[in-house]
Structures are given as C-alpha cells and as structure tokens.
Amino acid sequence: xxxxxxxxxxxxxxxxxxxxxxxxxxxxxxxxxxxxxxxxxxxxxxxxxxxxxxxxxxxxxxxxxxxxxxxxxxxxxxxxxxxxxxxxxxxxxxxxxxxxxxxxxxxxxxxxxxxxxxxxxxxxxxxxxxxxxxxxxxxxxxxxxxxxxxxxxxxxxxxxxxxxxxxxxxxxxxxxxxxxxxxxxxxxxxxxxxxxxxxxxxxxxxxx
Amino acid sequence: xxxxxxxxxxxxxxxxxxxxxxxxxxxxxxxxxxxxxxxxxxxxxxxxxxxxxxxxxxxxxxxxxxxxxxxxxxxxxxxxxxxxxxxxxxxxxxxxxxxxxxxxxxxxxxxxxxxxxxxxxxxxxxxxxxxxxxxxxxxxxxxxxxxxxxxxxxxxxxxxxxxxxxxxxxxxxxxxxxxxxxxxxxxxxxxxxxxxxxxxxxxxxxxxxxxxxxxxxxxxxxxxxxxxxxxxxxxxxxxxxxxxxxxxxxxxxxxxxxxxxxxxxxxxxxxxxxxxxxxxxxxxxxxxxxxxxxxxxxxxxxxxxxxxxxxxxxxxxxxxxxxxxxxxxx
Lengths: 208, 330
Fold this sequence. Notes:
The complex is a heterodimer of chains A (208) and B (330). Chain A is mainly α and 208 residues long. Chain A has nine helices and no strands. Chain A has helices at 3-19, 21-31, 36-53, 59-73, 78-93, 101-119, 129-145, 149-165, 190-207. The longest helix of chain A has 19 residues, at 101-119. Chain A starts with a helix and ends with a helix. By secondary structure, chain B is α/β, with parallel strands linked by helices. Chain B has two domains: 11-182, Rossmann fold, CATH 3.40.50; 184-311, 2-Layer Sandwich (Hypothetical Protein Tm841, Chain: A,domain 3), CATH 3.30.1180. In chain B, the strands form three sheets. In chain B, strands 1-2-4-3-5-6 form a six-stranded mixed sheet, sandwiched between helices. Chain B has a six-stranded mixed sheet with strand order 9-8-7-12-10-11. In chain B, helix 4 (152-165) packs antiparallel against helix 5. The mean pLDDT of chain B is 95. Classes of the chains: A mainly alpha (208), B alpha/beta (330). At the A-B interface, helix 2, helix 3, helix 4 and helix 5 of A face strand 4 and helix 3 of B.
C-alpha cells in the first residue's frame, strides 16, 4: 500500500462524508448538537485542499498532514479526536514508502491508543471507539493470519460497521450524548457511524 | 427554516463582520477568527481569553472589552473553535502577565483548549485554565462528560475580568475564576427547540404542552420531558435542583437568562418567582441580571444561574465593565 493508495483512501473518505453528511448530522441531532456531518465535511474538504497543495511523499506524511488539517479546521471534539488518530497513524508509519498489512495494523493500534489517551473513552461508552476498537482488533487478527490486505480490510470494515450498529442500545458515557443519560439509548452514535464510513472507504480503496 | 442569513456557510463570518462594524471598541480578525478588545494586549495585565461555538451571543464575543474578556474565539455554530484561534488570541492578548483560558466544560472545548495551551507554552506564553461546569442537570460522574458550562460562564468572565483589570496576577485571577465557578449552579428549561442553520431542522420536537427539563445551550434535548406548567412551578423545579446541589442562603448573584426566543416579560415573571423562592430559603439576590446573555440561537426557554457571593465577589461584580453585551460604571 503506497502513497497513492492512502491518498485514494482519503479521497474516498471525503466522498463518503460528503454523501453521508446529512445522515451523520441527523444522527447527531438526535443525541448531540446536529453538526457532525457538517463538521467532518468541512474538515475533509480542507484535507483534500491541503494534500493537493503540498503533495506528500510518503503514506506517513499524507496521514500526518490529514490529521493536522483536521485538528486545525474541524473544531468540536471530532477535530482533535480524528486529527490525533490520523496523525498517530501517520507517525507510526514513519518514512516507509510502501506499507504492509502488519505495519498498518500496528499503526491502527497506536492510533486507537492515542485516541483513548486523549478522549478517555473505553469500548461501550457509545463513541467512535466502539467502531474503531473492533476494526483494529480484526485488522491485527487478519495480519497474524497472514490475510491479504483486501480481505483484512474487508473484515475490518465489517467489524467497524457492526461496532457502530451495536452502539444503538447503549447509554452514552462520554461526549455530549452523555448529558441525555438514559435517553441517549436507542440511537446510533454519530462518531461510531463516521468511523465505520472511514473503514468502509478503506475497504473500497483496497478493492479498486 | 426562516433565518436572517445570507447562506448557511457564512453565518459566523457575516455576524463577525457585523460586530466589527457595530463596535469600534473591538478589533475583529476575520482571517484568524478572533475578536479582540481594540487596545489588546495591555502591558502587565493578565489576558482573558474564552471561546466556544457560536450561537450563544452575546457570549463570548459580546463580552470582550474593558473589565471582561481580552479576546474571544468564536467557533462554527455550536462547535468549539480550533487551537489555532486560541493560540492566536493568547499571543495577541499576552501583555507579559500571562493568559487565562476560560473554558466551558464540553469535550470539544476542553480538547481544543488543552491542545492550544500546550502549544502556547511551547511559544513562551504562560497560560492558566479554568473550567466552567455549573449545570446541575448533568450528574458529575464517571458516566457522563461531566457538568456543562452554562450561565456561570458570564459570572466567571465578569468577575475574573474585574480582577485582571485591577492588576491581579495570573494565579490570583485563576483562583477567583475557579471560586466563582465553584459557588455557581445553573438549570435550564426549554419550551421550544432551536434550528442550527446548517442542519435546517429543529433539534428536537416538542408537543404543544411538553417542555424539556435540564437542557444545555446547544439545542440538545434535556434530561427529561415533562408537562408544561405555570411559572412558579417551573422556577421551583429549577431552583430545587440548584438548592439540592448547593444549599441556598445568604447573598446571591442571580442570572435569569433567556435562551434567545423568550420574551423579557416572561423572564421577569420568572425572576419574581426566583426572588420569592430565595426569600423562602433565607437568601437574597443582592445583584441580578435578567435578559438574553447565554443563548441557544432562537430557543424558547430560560436558564437560572445562582452564585453564592461574598463581599469581595460583589465588589468585583460591581467594578466597571464596558463590552457590547454588558456595561456599567464607566
């Protein structure tokens, strides 16, 4: 997986966020403040511009630039959280021009850890971690199994989607949805939903 | 959706252009999205910086000026601003005595201000932070993001602003700001939701006789839905929640705050009930504010904030202030 692969992934994410913008915002309106889709769309639009303006030489550089741009442009909680995750992904990949599945799996584990440190959410708190953690686990397992990247990313995307759906009955313990107490149950977490979109984009990128 | 806007993407910029045109006492940096008092930075004075999502006007930009904030960072509607804005604001208000960040306790605001504070330290600006978390509707526990910052933000900004204007050093301004927060509690009630411009639809639906209890300031639903009732009972619900958390007695500073779509007449009706409630507890509102100060776009409803004050805090409250949203004594 080379720089072009990761740039395509980011493009796919930007497209998916644009297409699902209103849906993400509606999920957020139910248990948050009705801006998740709008904010991510603004962020990934800026990421596209940043990457076009200063084409990165390595996958790591592309992901760090994407993360930094998200931190600078999105605001809210999702800016620092997604920004930090992408930055950590990029930093973990280092200068390598071509990334194998084990490296990618390890980088995602580091991103998950960085996210946990920053936001303090654990699985079951009804946050993006509920989609990210199972996807990262699946990726690590696939790497150990010696799976092909396409299969591994397919499994990871399924795990993320399953994790996002599984947030529906949960009561939120982090973020703005937690203010609703028991009333936060019965709605899919918008952050988990957008994380599932990001893994779905990664799956599509591998299938191209 | 009917709103007086040019487009949903330009609401914040267009509003800032209006603030700049209306208030020469402010310097509005549209590129960096920071609202400064025109004479910032003030040599030797602690700089006060706050910020948060837009849609709560006059908070925070309307409280920039003499005796209150030195700069405000407006984010998108209901979205925390980004670290770049806070760093710019901190550098632009540091008169050599350091900068206090006044942060409302929301995950986004906290994360972005934390990142900004770290980067400010790298650039040699001394930063202290105070978290405002006065809303009793949210239980402060491991199972929530903690209490929200609402009406007490105004008290913190005004009183810490007076201390900074009087020349108090950073540690002292931070101490006073924390003390105001610790002595303050709030509770909010909504009769009708608001519409975030970019979303285009109300954030929740309420039946003709339904209300939301324990709302925040972002159009989010409250903790429970209830049946509407007369002002005395509504105020009683809010005041009971406050009193349960911080027993009311002695001198208090009271804000009866409109959420953006509430007639002032109704806020005064509520204030009369607050006053009567306090009397029943042996407490008095020695200072008060009634009006729209910490709003949630056009939401119909109110929040009540009570701060148990001592003589020092009353003196700082009375100190002159000159901002677009709050001014007296100068």
